[in-house]
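The instructor's notes for this session suggest beginning with a concrete chain rather than abstract definitions. Hand out the sequence below and ask the class to guess, before any prediction is shown, which regions might be ordered.
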Amino acid sequence: MAFFSQLDLQEGLQTFFVLQWIPVYIFLGAIPILLIPYFLLFSKFWPLAVLSLAWLAYDWNTHSQGGRRSAWVRNWTLWKYFRNYFPVKLVKTHDLSPKHNYIIANHPHGILSFGVFINFATEATGIARIFPSITPFVGTLERIFWIPIVREYVMSMGVCPVSSSALKYLLTQKGSGNAVVIVVGGAAEALLCRPGASTLFLKQRKGFVKMALQTGAYLVPSYSFGENEVFNQETFPEGTWLRLFQKTFQDTFKKILGLNFCTFHGRGFTRGSWGFLPFNRPITTVVGEPLPIPRIKRPNQKTVDKYHALYISALRKLFDQHKVEYGLPETQELTIT
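After discussion, reveal the predicted structure:
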């Protein structure tokens, strides 16, 4: 009986710590949340709002210059419960030399990019041990750093804006041994994810390749097997009123907030129930072989296209080498749109 109670406790803690992160991830990008500190100026809490906004103004450049990472936060025990919920795993195929800087491009985006978050923004899977002397930074929307207090939280985990200035600073001004992790497909790719799918939004995503050329950072392909399996995404049949409503809502959501809206669901508080928690399915992020990139201050389009094609080739190779081991059929192909 005690054994089952212990299992229930472990699963309950895992569920709780995943649950606390989902609303943070989803709603941080929403404009109303961003405005909360500013609304407080007109309430009895205005001194707190003034202090928070004054600090934000004074400290404005920090999040674009490496932030303030905290080994203590990255090693919180809660991240291990988060990891075990799925579970999440990090696999190295090649060493990353601390003599270079890297752009680790990750695919697919999935709905909430759990694999990237746990593997690179925390120490739950042991990235410091797996890639010694490499400092990872996870790129995300810059608007998150406009929120006082919240910006301190995400900076402590090594999260940075995925802006050109922030990435160039990390790759050229902080020495070597830095690895910027970018989920290249972005929110547009989230609309393509569903269980069993391996479709990437990559054909026209070349900015990360241009950044690698401008900074001389090596490109590293990585793929999170299982990321698309943790939620079901609904796309209603064309011509139905549900599809019309879905498209109208998605277009409005993107126009107002600049984000894509996914109609997804997972499990509830208990396994087998319906809800918005992810399914307990394994996610394995496999990090591939670094692709050496020359440093070219102003690369032309032909050069960008050349290294983009080389990157896609390396990514396909990584996918094909590991797909069967991590749950996909031998016949599964990587589709790039």
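Then share the key points. The first strand starts at residue 88 and ends at 92. The chain has a mean pLDDT of 86.
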